[in-house]
Amino acid sequence: MASACPDIPVVVLPANNVVHCATRPAAPVEAALTATTDALTGLRARLLDPAGADDSAVRRALDTAVERAAHLAAEAAVTPLDTTGLRAIVPNHDYFGVRTAAVDDAYRVAETTVVLARVLADLRGARLDLNDQAAEVRAMILLLDGLLPPDGAPAPAPVSSYRPQLDLGKSELTRWVITHHFYFVLNLAAAHAVGRAVAALADADRSTAVTAFREAAVLVRGFTAAMMHSGDMSAPCYDARVRPSMYPPAVPAALTGRTQPEHKAFRKAMRRLAATSTEPFAKIAVTDPELALARDALFEADLHDIERHIVVTAALVGDDSSIIQVDESAESAIAILRTMRHTRAMAYRHLMRFGDQVEIADA
Length: 363
Prior knowledge:
Elements: E1 11-14, H1 27-47, H2 55-76, H3 91-96, E2 98-101, H4 105-123, H5 130-146, H6 172-202, H7 206-230, H8 235-242, H9 261-276, H10 281-287, H11 289-316, H12 333-348
Parallel strand pairs: 1-2
Helix pairs in contact: 1-2, 1-5, 2-4, 4-5, 4-6, 5-7, 6-7, 6-9, 7-11, 10-11, 11-12
């Protein structure tokens, strides 16, 4: 099965789903990480300026961030793995040009930074809401923070003359693929943050739990924004260029996001959270309002994510059924997403500050 965009180099994600580092990178990479984080912080401030976004100022800030991210990706580059022997674990990985393998921290930094640099460069031409742009940028900052652990011995500088391919051309299908790469990385980072929060709660470490909940909410809002970024195209364009690439004869079987391993890892983490942290918001808020609000922000972000999924599906797919449904009498893709949203709201409603009083018949 060929990838949707064969010209985009294969992205290798860590087999253990860990997208943060335990060791510090080489000094030039660390300097480039810091410079990129500073540029992204400045860009976010421009996007969220209370006086209103100045288009020229935003453009200059974005150009600076793109330049520094490209430099970072070049500094962090290592010789790519030979992926010919790596098998895609699901058809989605074949389609998006993704493989998994055991990687060291240097490789983890290299792949994360090149994925980030490509998405940031694409943002130059994207017609994306300012708040979604800011959410993507804030998640990028958090990802880069995870590549710089507070302690640990410096890693040796990678010996490589390889330079990553960043200029991939401009097309809706290219945007669809590279923003999904970013989406996958953010899902893994969010799953890890939720897992840290659950573990911290079990250890009665409320400070770590609060921090982890806050980070997870940032990452969820970031991958929601990445989803909206991926859908920056007209419905006719999606119907003509993207949708046909995801079902036969373009691929052996129609693809579904439900089998995407990175998102499944996040969903598993959220189910574990809801099953183990069962105290209602009101009860926690009496003794620890900061913790209650931090957990609530994550649940809110997760509900917003599927609500935005409904919005982008309505715009691109309309009343059509999902591509994995062949029965003409099947529900629309939007109807299925609404049911998923309501099921999620039912699971969260007693845990949230403003939980939805929703019931699903026969649930």
